[in-house]
């Protein structure tokens, strides 16, 4: 099993940037496909970005493509989400996700608020 702890959320003005981090502990981090999801008030949780085991393949929600960048450091057991050109509609709780053999693990979430 893996434990995930997110950090880096906060309040930022539109057009600003934030970098989220997700530190993992437990089983071998490099065995997990890692991702970020978000949930805005009154909405369902949605996929934001994912990265494969080596970090060579990434995938993004269309509305964040070109603004967000997911990356991972397997030596540090950490996955990152660099968020640039933030918009008010990016406001949500952001969750780190680890996936292995059909099992999903989640962090507790970190709040991102973008003011207009």
Characterise the protein shown here.
The chain is mainly β. Helix content is about 0%, strand content about 55%. It contains no helices and eleven strands. Strands 2, 4, 5, 6, 9, 10 and 11 form a seven-stranded mixed β-sheet that branches. A four-stranded antiparallel β-sheet has the order 1-3-8-7, with no helix packed on it. β4 and β5 form a beta hairpin.
Structural class: mainly beta
Strand content: over 45%
Helix percent reads under 10%
Q: Which blocks of ≥5 consecutive residues have pLDDT under 50?
A: none
Please provide the count of β strands.
Answer: 11
One letter per element, helices H and strands E, the order comes to EEEEEEEEEEE
How many angstroms separate the termini?
Answer: 40 Å
Overall shape = globular
Count of DSSP-assigned helices: 0
Question: What is Rg?
Answer: 13 Å
- Summed over residues and divided by their number, the pLDDT gives a mean of 96
Q: Tell me about the biggest sheet?
A: 7 strands, mixed
What are its keywords?
116 residues; mainly beta; seven-stranded mixed sheet; four-stranded antiparallel sheet
How would you sum up this structure in a few lines?
This protein has 116 residues and is mostly beta strands. 0% of the residues lie in helices and 57% in strands. The protein is globular.
Secondary structure blueprint with pairings:
Elements: E1 2-7, E2 10-13, E3 18-26, E4 33-39, E5 46-51, E6 58-60, E7 68-73, E8 78-83, E9 92-100, E10 103-106, E11 110-115
């Amino acid at each position: 099993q893996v434990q995930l702890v997110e950090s880096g959320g906060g309040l930022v003005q539109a057009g600003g940037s934030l970098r989220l981090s997700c530190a993992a502990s437990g089983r071998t981090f490099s065995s997990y496909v890692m991702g970020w999801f978000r949930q805005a008030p009154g909405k369902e949780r949605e996929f934001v970005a994912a990265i494969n085991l080596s970090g060579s393949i990434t995938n993004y929600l269309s509305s964040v493509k070109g603004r967000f960048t997911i990356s991972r450091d397997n030596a540090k057991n950490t996955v990152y989400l660099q968020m640039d050109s933030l918009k008010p509609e990016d406001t949500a709780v952001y969750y780190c996700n680890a996936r292995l053999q059909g099992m999903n693990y989640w962090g507790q979430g970190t709040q991102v608020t973008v003011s207009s």
